[in-house]
Amino acid sequence: MEQRSARHGNALVAAGLAVIAVTYGLARYGYGLYLPEFRAAFGLSSGTAGVIAAGSYAGYCGAAVLAGRLVGSGRARAALWCAGAVAALGCLLVAAAWSGPVLAAGALLAGSGAGAATPATVAAVARTVPATGVPRAQGVVNSGTGAGVVAGGLLVLSVPGAWRWAWVGFAAAALAATAWADRSARWGGGDGPVPGVGPEEEEARVRLARPLVAAVLAGAGCAGVWTFGRDLLADDGGLPDRLTGLLWCVLGAAGLLGGISGVLVVRVGVRAAWIATVAAAAAGTGVLGVSAGSPVRAALSLALFGAAFVALSGVLLAWGAARAPGTAASAAASLFIGLTVGQAVGAVLLGRVADATSAPVAFTAAAGVLLLAAGAAERRPRIRRPAGLPGPLGQRTGARRPMV
């Protein structure tokens, strides 16, 4: 029985990783990947491009709230299909876009799928994977963002300019990954609510105030690379499409290394891990802004940013779970929404800064915001560590283990 459960868990982890890869790495961050093509096709300014990206991030937040309610009411399977179907619909709309407004609508829907994907996969893993393997499984699934970014970069390398067909492929992949995850999950009778969503949420929101501010600031700073990174390389750096696609692969591949965030938190604690990862993202952003024309320096800065972004996301989840262990799933959703709200605001403001000054100046501003986010770390965080997870000194407590 245990072997069968482990096999089901492994299949679900692979399928969940695929769902995150498509909804995040392709449908959501694919907008930034193909921004040079979109700007050429629809005559978008940096400011307009930022507004469209903000719409995608806003859609993410709305979908995350809806999916959280579906999961909380025992309809996690519906949330999973909401993620896949909405992402697929948005990708098809982007592929068929004949004007800027249609592109904006498609990007909004495509980005929304990711918002529903996280609560759905958290619930699926919690119900399918043996309890002792849940934290590790959630970390592996979360690393799917990097895999999707690599896949997008490889597409640009292999079929440059064929962005419409690429987005049709994204839509097909979204539906296929969703069906795979649905078949692999053990939803159980009644598809009951996921642990960690309960009446303690109001108290948890108060305890999450500081990490939420840090998440918003970090999101605003990270919007620079995710929204305008490839556009900077192509326009200001003058690099060819194939090379920028390869550099995007470097960004995604480095993101796969961000799974070390759990080890980092255990070894040095939440505060030090947050400062280190956010400062690294700031360094990568700032260096990229002044090195867009140098392939080697651009590759190094993108690698640093990619690993730091995924790691800071993991640290943020650990921070939320430590502050609100009784509502870990809803805490994760709240902080990811905060991160995305920051990305939406950052995309708009950085686009306007780029229009008014230059893209390198906007990237310098983004790095400055990230440094502010690093400074938002608690001096002495009052950690409420979940059960089964070792603290910096190896101690364990009796609280509930988080699904992160």
From TrEMBL:
The lineage of its organism: Bacteria, Bacillati, Actinomycetota, Actinomycetes, Geodermatophilales. Keywords: Membrane, Transmembrane, Transmembrane helix. The keyword Cell division does not apply. InterPro entries: MFS (IPR011701), MFS_4 (IPR010645), MFS_trans_sf (IPR036259). This is Predicted arabinose efflux permease, MFS family. SUPFAM superfamilies: MFS general substrate transporter. One of its GO terms (molecular function) is transmembrane transporter activity. The keyword Manganese does not apply. Residues 383-404 are annotated as: Disordered. It holds the Pfam family MFS_1. GO terms for cellular component: plasma membrane. The chain crosses the membrane at residues 12-31, 51-71, 78-98, 104-127, 139-159, 165-181, 212-229, 245-266, 273-292, 298-319, 331-351, 357-377.
